[in-house]
């Protein structure tokens, strides 16, 4: 573990240095944000779920905290909407194994498309907040779809993960799943076969071991289906109802931005997942796929390893960040913001986008360090000179939150 810790620490430090990460101190407590959010959790969201008050408190601080840190530019209206939708999305994912709620979740998108009311109160609240978010984007159809549709498809992504990882399915379906290049162990049951992820091979029911190497992109596809990255990206491009930045200013960077949102989270989550022994995450799935493809790595026999995947993703984040910075003219915009001359071709929309991207990026990364769930204390000293970045903020209650992204 010590060797792995050193490897991950070195790669993360180099990555954050290379992309020019800047840590900004936590903002002052904003009662205009936290008080209405707290009331909403207690009096609106709480009655729709079976979660206890301590659980809701954890959810409040994790969903509220990441939005506060990542979107310093957002209006209070948008900040609260993103925090509420994030909280409900986490609740839905947590509740998906409840048989009664599961039946309602399966019908969520169907009812939404048909204009039918959601019978479950939690799903009705989710739908109502999606509608409110849609209204904020007015007549901007493209940006509205970026901001709204991921919250809808997220439901189906959660269902997909449930079916792949934890469903009770028929033996016939086991063969289909194995050919879909995911390995499971077979646990005999009465009428069904229970599938659980395994990391050391495929079920004997397959005709032959699955060719993970033929499905190199499936791990990222699975990751993207249960993510809400396009919606979070849209939050960077519009700070309030009135701001209307031309589409051509940002649309080309969306693919790299979505990649950044997803993979940076995976990189910063990986340490705590290794400690917990989790192996059905993107990095492990991608490693198995690349190893099966015959890719050469740094293993004892030249095989592809988890460390190779980790390093590769860090390099890909470097590339994505460089392209985003270039498309947004970040360096030139920051020079103009410092008052340097000779930058008259930089317009107000360029400055706004650059500032919003920079604020989001630094806040998003910093939040991972401030959240104890990610167990990144071993890196805090290197970047912040302190191991108690969040302790002065809201005390131990904040720093031990679920932070379940």
From TrEMBL:
InterPro entries: Isoprenoid_synthase_dom_sf, Trichodiene_synth. GO terms for molecular function: carbon-oxygen lyase activity, acting on phosphates. Transmembrane segments: none annotated. It comes from the Eukaryota. Keywords: Lyase. Belongs to the trichodiene synthase family. This is Terpenoid synthase. It comes from Mycena rosella.
């Amino acid at each position: 573990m010590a060797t792995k810790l050193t490897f991950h620490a070195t790669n993360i430090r180099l990555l954050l240095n290379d992309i020019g990460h800047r840590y900004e101190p936590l903002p002052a407590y904003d009662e205009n944000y936290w008080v209405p959010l707290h009331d909403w959790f207690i009096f609106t969201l709480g009655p729709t779920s079976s979660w206890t008050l301590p659980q809701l408190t954890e959810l409040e601080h994790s969903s509220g905290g990441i939005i506060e840190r990542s979107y310093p530019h957002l209006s209070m209206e948008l900040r609260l909407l993103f925090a509420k939708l994030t909280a409900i999305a986490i609740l839905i994912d947590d509740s998906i194994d409840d048989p009664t709620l599961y039946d309602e979740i399966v019908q969520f998108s169907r009812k939404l498309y048909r204009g039918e009311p959601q019978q479950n109160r939690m799903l009705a609240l989710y739908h109502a907040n999606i509608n409110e978010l849609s209204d904020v984007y007015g007549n901007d159809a493209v940006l509205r779809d970026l901001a709204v549709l991921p919250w809808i498809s997220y439901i189906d992504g959660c269902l997909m993960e449930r079916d792949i990882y934890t469903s009770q399915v028929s033996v016939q379906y086991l063969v289909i799943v194995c050919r879909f290049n995911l390995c499971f162990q077979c646990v005999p049951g009465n009428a069904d076969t229970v599938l659980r992820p395994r990391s050391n091979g495929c079920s004997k029911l397959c005709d032959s071991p699955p060719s993970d190497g033929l499905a190199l992109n499936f791990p990222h596809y699975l990751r993207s289906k249960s993510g809400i990255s396009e919606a979070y990206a849209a939050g960077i491009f519009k700070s309030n109802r009135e701001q209307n930045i031309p589409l051509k200013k940002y649309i080309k960077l969306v693919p790299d931005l979505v990649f950044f949102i997803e993979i940076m989270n995976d990189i910063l989550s990986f340490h705590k997942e290794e400690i917990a022994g989790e192996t059905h995450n993107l990095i492990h799935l991608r490693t198995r796929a690349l190893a099966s493809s015959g890719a050469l790595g740094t293993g004892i026999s030249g095989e592809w390893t988890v460390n190779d995947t980790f390093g590769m993703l860090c390099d890909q984040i470097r590339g994505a960040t460089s392209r985003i910075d270039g498309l947004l003219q970040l360096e030139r915009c920051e020079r103009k913001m410092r008052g340097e001359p000779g930058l008259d071709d930089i317009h107000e929309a360029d400055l706004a986008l650059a500032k919003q991207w920079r604020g989001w990026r630094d806040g998003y990364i910093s939040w991972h360090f401030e959240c104890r769930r990610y167990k990144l204390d071993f890196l805090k000293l290197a970047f912040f000179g302190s191991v108690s970045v969040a302790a002065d903020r809201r005390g131990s209650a904040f720093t031990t939150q679920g932070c379940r992204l």
